[in-house]
Design brief:
The complex is a heterodimer of chains A (about 130) and B (about 200). Chain A is mostly helical and about 130 residues long. Chain A has a single domain, classed as Helix Hairpins, CATH 1.10.287. Chain A has helices at about 15-55, 75-115, and strands spanning about 60-65, 70-75. The longest helix of chain A has about 45 residues, at about 75-115. Chain A starts with 12 loop residues before the first helix and ends in a 9-residue tail after the last helix. Chain B has a domain at about 45-90 and about 135-190: Helix Hairpins (Orthogonal Bundle). Helix content of chain B is about 60%, strand content about 15%. Chain B is built from three helices and six strands. Chain B has helices at about 35-40, 45-95, 135-195, and strands at about 20, 25, 100-105, 110-115, 120-125, 130-135. In chain B, the strands form three sheets. In chain B, strands 1-2 form a two-stranded antiparallel ribbon. In chain B, a hairpin with a 2-residue loop joins strand 5 and strand 6 (about 130-135). In chain B, helix 2 (about 45-95) runs antiparallel to helix 3. The longest helix of chain B is centred in the C-terminal third of the chain and has 59 residues, at about 135-195. The chains are: A mainly alpha (about 130), B alpha+beta (about 200). Strand 2 (about 70-75) of chain A pairs antiparallel with strand 3 (about 100-105) of chain B, so a sheet runs across the interface. Chain B: One of its GO terms (molecular function) is tubulin binding. Chain B: This is Prefoldin subunit 3. Chain B: Keywords: Chaperone. Chain B: Belongs to the prefoldin subunit alpha family.
Amino acid sequence: MQQGDGSEAQVTWEDQQNINRFGRLNNRFHELEDEIKLAKESNESLEDASNELILSDEDVVRFQIGEVFAHMPREEVEIRLEKMKEDASKDLERLEEEKESVLAQMAELKKILYGKFKDSINLEED
Amino acid sequence: MAAASASSSSPSPSSPQGVAERRGIPAASFVEDVETYLKQSGLDVNSSLAFLQERLQQYKIVEMKLLAQQRDLQAKIPDIEKCLDIVATLQAKKGSGEALIADFEVSEGIYSRARIEDADSVCLWLGANVMLEYSCEEADALLKKNLENAKASLEVLVADLQFLRDQVTITQVTIARVYNWDVHQRRTKQATKET
């Protein structure tokens, strides 16, 4: 993370804490990217399932609960699916918001740290 | 193992470093001034760097272990939630007088149909080749408790990992500072020699 050119800026405990915070935020950012990818896939799958349900004309649908496929009346499946879609969509929104917040905090810290250390510190992804 | 308080993000002014260890993980001490640090430890630059590198390796090993535990817990939680879903479905069907018909996997690619009527009890797999029969209500309570415990453990684990990563960062920064200080010393010596 730091380059060894022997320059002078002293690292205070506050600087160290800022660096630590940046590290934590960066980790969280990558975790969020992975979680968002999964959430998007989940949303898509639910959308596909919903469309399949509309197209099919069966009255009894096999709905997966855990490891088994339970036979359920179509209306119940529709209700369940709607709820799942709503939950998934809220999840995705929450994750995207957290990601924005994390990026904003990281940008703030970059300003502070680059301001003090300039070239002696590297906060970019390699 | 004594658990130090988990306040690693806002240390009090009197102890600038916060906690000395967390659940067995030693904290990396922050170096205020490199020269003073080297004098106090009595080590020369290379030994100091070697010591810090070794500390870094130890931290990495603990990190691997914690990450594995985290993966396990993250897999366990959706499983428990699925079980709760099934128990809830069985309980809902109980009142209606209808049987629950479900297709389940007998072997890879082969499914069979089951008819579950008036489910009063379920069997829960407790691990260690033990399966116990519970009433639906008991099963629901047990699964909910397990879910809570798993989520709580995960929270603690995540906090442990954050603490650990902070210590890794502090150690990396210290290594860079000791190295830079050394480079600076050599340059100044070189400059005085040449004048």
